[in-house]
Amino acid sequence: MAGCTSNDECYKQIGINNFDYDACDMIRDIEKKERCYDKIIDKTDNLEACRNLENQEWKDNCLATLGVNRGDSSLCEEIVGEFDSDFCYWHIANNLNDPSLCENVKDETLIESCNKFSQE
Fold first, then answer.
1. How far is the CA of 58 from the CAs of 6, 66, 68, 95, 103, in angstroms?
2. pTM of the model
3. Model confidence at 116: pLDDT above 80
4. pLDDT digits over 14-60, tens only?
């Protein structure tokens, strides 16, 4: 495949271009494998695949992205990391103009901006 610099890169391109999780499974480098899954999930809005990511940081990021894209704060509740959790709640609160969601944000700076923005 044109542009491939390694087998992992080729499998990643095939996986992303064809929404093929099996191609992603062939990738040996864990970070590249997770990026492959993440790109497919982002394009397909596949929550189950998101929940199956092994790396917690990638899973948190994926859940936050899907939560914001869907406007579904219940996905924010599944996030372990505070940064992604705050990101998820903050964006949904602002997108839906729902200040009650700001109560779930822990970062002081984000709390202030969340409350200000959602009250406008």
1. 23, 12, 15, 23, 24
2. 0.77
3. no
4. 988 998 888 988 999 988 888 888 888 888 888 988 888 888 988 99
Q: Are the beta carbons of 79 and 52 closer than 8 angstroms? A: no
Query: What is the 8-class DSSP label of residue 76?
Result: G
Q: Cα separation of 13 and 19, whole Å? A: 10
pLDDT at residue 115 is higher than 80:
no
Q: What percent of the chain has pLDDT over 90?
A: 47
Q: Tokens 């499998």 — which residue?
A: 11
Tokens, residue 3:
């542009």
Give 44-69 as a DSSP string.
HT-HHHHHT-SSHHHHHHHHHHHHHH
Asked if 10 and 18 count as a contact pair (C-beta separation under 8 A), the reply is no
Cβ distance 41 to 61 under 8 Å?
Answer: no
* CA triple 44-46-50, angle to 5 deg: 125
Q: Are 17 and 5 in contact (CB under 8 A)?
A: no
